[in-house]
Amino acid sequence: MLYEWVQWLAAEILADNGHLEQARERLEPLLGRAELRNDAHSWRILLLAARVEADLALRGTRRRRAETESPGRMSQLSQYAADTPAAGDLGTAWTAQLVAEHARCARTDSAEVWRAAVDGWHVTGQVHDQAWALIRLATCELEAGDKKSAADALSEAIAIGTRLGAAPLVDAAEAVARRGRIDVRRDRDREQPAHQRRHGLTAREVEVLQLVAEGRSNDQIAKELFISPKTASVHVSHILTKLNVASRSEATTAAHRLGLLDEAAKS
């Protein structure tokens, strides 16, 4: 298994530095191997391969090349994934990420599919993967014209990347910010005290909390924020956990006590 891990790590470094064809070559011998299908490492291989194929497909589009091999390869990766166990919270995150990368390869991804991936990684505590998903989420939000949400996602990704010392991740987030004309470093520095006052809640969770306090259901929150009811439910669950309360009414009481709703009204 050491050989597979070394090959995967080398492929990730190549992909992070834009050497996509070389990364593909490193991963190719590892895909579909039956002996890896009971190991979480097989999902790492699949997801990195999916990311590489999506990047290659988009790079091909930008250069106006003829149709690349990436869509066919992505379909093969989905078949490998169907034959690979994906249980528990990690399985949910893996599957959501693969769905999002498949959609990105086909240029049909959206903020909703990437939000599902972000939420999936958040539950598992895999913050490095969460940060990459946040960058993809921000890209979709920019394309949809939601610059504020994109700035929040990029600021969070940069904070994670800085904490981890992951320079390629930070560079990728800042590149998206430059394309979207978002000064994420300034926004992050300005909003850091507010973030601390949020008691661990993200900007999006404060928005959800405001709607919870207004008595909105998950379905109503979803319609208001243009997200799925499942994503709204995940946000509410995160809010209850971070505020250490057991119900929506207790969350509302805590929010008033901590001044979170006053802060939301000012933003």
Distance between the termini: 50 Å
Helical segment count: 15
Computed over alpha carbons, the radius of gyration is: 19 Å
Task: Give the strand content.
Answer: under 5%
Helix and strand string, N-terminal first? HHHHHHHHHHHHHHH
Task: Describe this protein's structure.
- The model is unreliable at 62-67 and 186-197 (pLDDT under 50).
- α1 (2-16) packs antiparallel against α2, α3 (40-62) packs parallel to α5 and α11 packs across α13 (229-243).
- This protein starts with a helix and ends with a helix.
- The protein contains 15 helices and no strands.
- It is mostly helical and 267 residues long.
- The longest helix has 23 residues, at 40-62.
- The protein is globular, with a radius of gyration of 19 Å.
Give descriptors for this structure.
single chain, 267 residues, mainly alpha, 77% helix
In short:
The protein has 267 residues and is mainly α. It contains 15 helices and no strands.
Topology:
Elements: H1 2-16, H2 20-27, H3 40-62, H4 70-82, H5 88-105, H6 111-124, H7 127-143, H8 147-164, H9 167-179, H10 184-197, H11 203-213, H12 218-225, H13 229-243, H14 248-258, H15 260-266
Helix pairs in contact: 1-2, 1-3, 2-3, 3-4, 3-5, 4-5, 5-6, 6-7, 7-8, 7-9, 8-9, 8-10, 11-13, 11-14, 11-15, 12-13, 13-14
